[in-house]
Amino acid sequence: MTAASVRLDVFESADLRGELTRLRPMRPDEAPRFYQWTRDPDVAPWWAGVASARTLEEFLADWEPYYFDGSRPGLGRSFAIEADGKLIGMIATNRVEVHDRQTEIDIVIGEPGYRDRGYGTDALRATLRFLFDTVGLHRVWLATYEHNARARRAYEKAGFREEGLLRESDRVDGRWVNSVVYGILDHEFRRLCAAHPEPVEG
After folding, report:
1. Which stretch of DSSP H or E encloses residue 202?
2. Cα(96)–Cα(105) distance, rounded to whole angstroms?
3. Partners of 25 in the beta sheet?
């Protein structure tokens, strides 16, 4: 598959299904809900960039033009994570590097009752299936703080491999912290799916 085969046109029609979750493009009117989640003391320490926004207006100035309106999916797109008929979180692709067929993703499970119960891992797998099999990417990566044990467990369960350590990459609460980079390749994910089949997106 070549860079020309990368399909950005499929983002707005995506309706992704996991075993526990459904994902679909997040609407602009849902952006305040996401911003509210980032104010949660259990979430804010892991979302330095978003949590640093002092107001909703400041947050929307950075995120709404790309992540929520759907007009430029190559620069970023947010997907709502639903479970039991309710909005529980968000997963976003960042800039899609078309030539290299890769992107960075972010995820948050905003509703406390759905954390540490497999919903994040399920949403990650549904998103990876879409990015590899439908969009046509070769590599997906993400980074998290070294001490974020919850996120690291979810990423590893979804099939991501630790790729490296960014030493003292961020300053959090007055101290330097390390970040861990995780990545997964299309053929690695397909091997994982062959070993553990799951539903495909509807």
Report:
1. none
2. 10
3. 79
Q: How many CB atoms lie within 10 A of CB 19?
A: 12
Residue matched to tokens 């996120």? 151
Contacts of 103 (CB under 8 A, 6+ apart): 93, 94, 95, 96, 97, 131, 137, 140, 141
Residues 6+ apart with CB under 8 A from 93: 73, 76, 77, 103, 104, 105, 127, 131
Spatial separation of the C-alpha atoms in residues 182 and 141, rounded to whole Å: 6
**pLDDT score of 199:** 47
3-state helix, strand and coil shares in percent for the chain, rounded to the nearest 5: 40, 30, 35
- Please give the structure tokens belonging to residue 131: 């990015």
Phi (first) and psi of residue 91, to 5 degrees? -130, 135
What is the DSSP annotation of 91-157?
EEE---BTTTTEEEEEEEE-SGGGTTSSHHHHHHHHHHHIIIIII--SEEEEEEETT-HHHHHHHHH
Q: Bridge-partner residues for 118, per DSSP?
A: none
Dihedral over alpha carbons 15, 10, 105, 57 (to 10 degrees): -90
Contacts of 96 (CB under 8 A, 6+ apart): 6, 8, 73, 74, 75, 102, 103, 135, 137
Position of tokens 């950005």?
8
Question: Which H or E run includes 192?
Answer: helix 186-195
Q: What is the tens place of the pLDDT at every residue in 44-74?
A: 667 665 556 678 888 888 888 889 989 899 9
